[in-house]
Amino acid sequence: MELKGKVAIVSGAAEGFGKAFAEVLLLKGCKVCLCDINAPLGQKTTGIFEQRFGKENAIFVTCDVTVAEQFADVFKKTKLEYGKIDIVVNNAGVANEKEWRQTIMVNLIGSMQGTELAVKYMSKENGGHGGVIINIGSATGFEPVFFMPAYAASKHGLIGFTRSWSVSKRNEANGLRFACLCPAFAETNLIRFTEGTTLSNSTAEALLKEIGVVKMSQVVESFMELLADESNNGAVLKLTLDDGAEYMYRDAR
Ligand SMILES: NC(=O)C1=CN([C@@H]2O[C@H](COP(=O)(O)OP(=O)(O)OC[C@H]3O[C@@H](n4cnc5c(N)ncnc54)[C@H](O)[C@@H]3O)[C@@H](O)[C@H]2O)C=CC1
Ligand SMILES: CCCCC/C=C\C=C\C(=O)C/C=C\C/C=C\CCCC(=O)O
């Protein structure tokens, strides 16, 4: 997929994966709308990108992805600013078992909302040019995870949701494709929030040591692989330190 001149929306882009995805898209010549619930950090990140890549290539919109009107506003503003939308990355996520309803709301419902909006704006039948939706799942979406049941459920759901969209013939005709990136532990602040799990700090440290922590560069590389290959519809790519990137599903089925 030629990325130069494409327009992307990345949710949860103030820090972590979202910031790295926005950065690589800008590096490849895309225009990017970064959105995040954390307005001060989102504005700071976007300001840095504006300086590096040009003020005209990055915008920030404050958005809680669980609030439908706010997420819709992100799409409206991006279309208004850049005239089209080609890539949507549903990345915003939390890992909090005590606030498990919120975990489902952000990780699953928020990403579903972002996908629905992407389909609305990018479908050829609505005047769009087609495009790609990348949902950020997790390696917890394939197996039981005793210390994060709600989080794991949100990611199991997101994988099923993404695959279900990918098998629709109507979406194929609309030029849309759908893929899911599923990393194991990776080096962001998310994995430092152990109060959000049922683990003690020492058990969490031991687990991180045992499973290992994937580097951000590996996550970005896998993200780019899903984006670049236009035949990737329905692909679910798992990324672990031990096995690297492996397709759990390659095609829409
Ligand atoms: N770090 C890890 O080990 C892994 C993370 N993931 C997933 O990757 C995605 C990104 O996570 P990280 O970068 O690690 O976390 P992070 O905590 O570094 O970044 C998450 C971003 O999402 C934003 N956010 C949270 N709730 C939001 C909401 N309601 N609306 C809009 N923005 C919101 C935060 O403000 C933050 O900027 C998440 O979906 C997470 O579940 C998946 C596998 C592994
Ligand atoms: C121990 C740290 C606790 C805090 C964790 C917070 C967030 C984690 C988010 C993830 O998405 C982590 C993803 C995967 C880790 C769990 C199981 C990995 C199984 C890997 C495998 O299949 O080999």
UniProtKB/TrEMBL annotation:
Its EC number is 1.1.1.141, 1.1.1.232. It catalyses: resolvin D1 + NAD(+) = 8-oxoresolvin D1 + NADH + H(+); resolvin D2 + NAD(+) = 7-oxoresolvin D2 + NADH + H(+); 15-oxo-(5S,6R)-dihydroxy-(7E,9E,11Z)-eicosatrienoate + NADH + H(+) = (5S,6R,15S)-trihydroxy-(7E,9E,11Z)-eicosatrienoate + NAD(+); prostaglandin A1 + NAD(+) = 15-oxo-prostaglandin A1 + NADH + H(+). One of its GO terms (molecular function) is 15-hydroxyicosatetraenoate dehydrogenase activity. Belongs to the short-chain dehydrogenases/reductases (SDR) family. This is 15-hydroxyprostaglandin dehydrogenase [NAD(+)]. It holds the Pfam family adh_short. Keywords: Oxidoreductase. Catalyzes the NAD-dependent dehydrogenation (oxidation) of a broad array of hydroxylated polyunsaturated fatty acids (mainly eicosanoids and docosanoids, including prostaglandins, lipoxins and resolvins), yielding their corresponding keto (oxo) metabolites. Decreases the levels of the pro-proliferative prostaglandins such as prostaglandin E2 (whose activity is increased in cancer because of an increase in the expression of cyclooxygenase 2) and generates oxo-fatty acid products that can profoundly influence cell function by abrogating pro-inflammatory cytokine expression. One of its GO terms (cellular component) is cytoplasm.
